[in-house]
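discrete fold record:
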Amino acid sequence: MTTPAPVSYRHGGLVCTDHTLDVPLDHRTPDGPAIRLFAREVVAEGREHEDLPRLLWLQGGPGGRAERPNAAGAWLRRALADYRVVLLDQRGTGRSTPADRVTLARFGTDSEAAADHLAHFRADSIVRDAEHLRRHLQGDRPWSVLGQSFGGFSTLTYLSLAPEGLAQAYITGGLPTLTGHADDVYRAAYARTLAHNEHYFARYPGDQALADAVAAHLDTHDVRMPAGERLTVRRFQSLGITFGTAAKFDSLHYLLETAFTEGRDGPELTDTFLRGVDAAVSFAERPLYAALHEPIYAQGGCPTDWSAHRIRQEFPAFDATAGGPVRFTGEMVYPWQFEEDPALVPLRGAAEALAARTDWPALYDLDRLAANEVPVVAAVYHDDMYVDREHALATAGAVRGLRTWVTDAYAHDGVRADAAVLDRLIGMARGEA
């Protein structure tokens, strides 16, 4: 493949430069197959010729492309006051070589080969990609990193594998357990998700009867979403993923209020409602999120074995067949989603193989983290639905010199919602806060 030359353009007070380079699929075999990596560098207009330090943005996910400059969160404008910002489309996403039902079709029915391929899309590979990109852009000079959610997980891997590449690290809502199994992660996550359900229904008490009515209707009717697949009760329950961010917390309420209309034979679910549900629950735009959500926790020789599916049995409140009020699940991924979501059906065999896999390499070097010399600051959101506070604080205590700011003023998307979050972290890193 011929690597395109960088392309620069201007809009909205920004100067953007698109970079592409080829990196090994498997960094252990640098002469093996290569994939393409894309990153967009952004600098404030008028400062494009200044020798500003670079800040790498590591997106949440897994499997999410970097934010685009025209729709980026509040953090970007604050970051541009001090940095050139590098928006990396992590491997498999965006303009980097995609990993989805189309590209994985070349493996045919060889699920193990597809799983072997996808095993190269975790944080360890992302960090090694970032190091290739850093050297491509600025040689041996270290850069800073801002890791949001899974991007924070990747930052801990960065500190473990290549701390020499980092001048400093900012983490928001993204301190993972360093040694816990996926079972520990989901057991804590289900409890937090129940608490967010209670918060939601306390805000919208009329929605309980409506949610129950939707579930009852789905249980007794074959309801099809616009793309043709059936909407089941358990898939409807997965709408609780919206409870974790301030930007989307209320979206379920405004979706439910459109739920029913009077049809020829009685109440029917509206196209508006079904289209909104489809947009929220489909993995068409982020298949890697589903395929790798549990493998991002896998290490230590143990399979994840569909952890969220198994641990759910410990929380009967989520059993919609038990007769109680409907409770919505969060960011858990289940094997049945690879049967019900057309975007995931072709990945089912690979997902099964990943769930059974035991030969995962370690993501974190505990000794290296304990001896860390890179300045690290982290925002820990007290009531974060996606990342457990106690796990985060235990990890903070295991990383030498890591300073935390624990706040209940923000949800998981705080850094996107308010520039003050990154401003506070930058001040902490400078000893000003």
Q: What stands out?
A: The first strand starts at residue 7 and ends at 11. The CA atoms of residues 55 and 144 lie 5 Å apart. The chain has a mean pLDDT of 96. The longest helix spans residues 182-203.
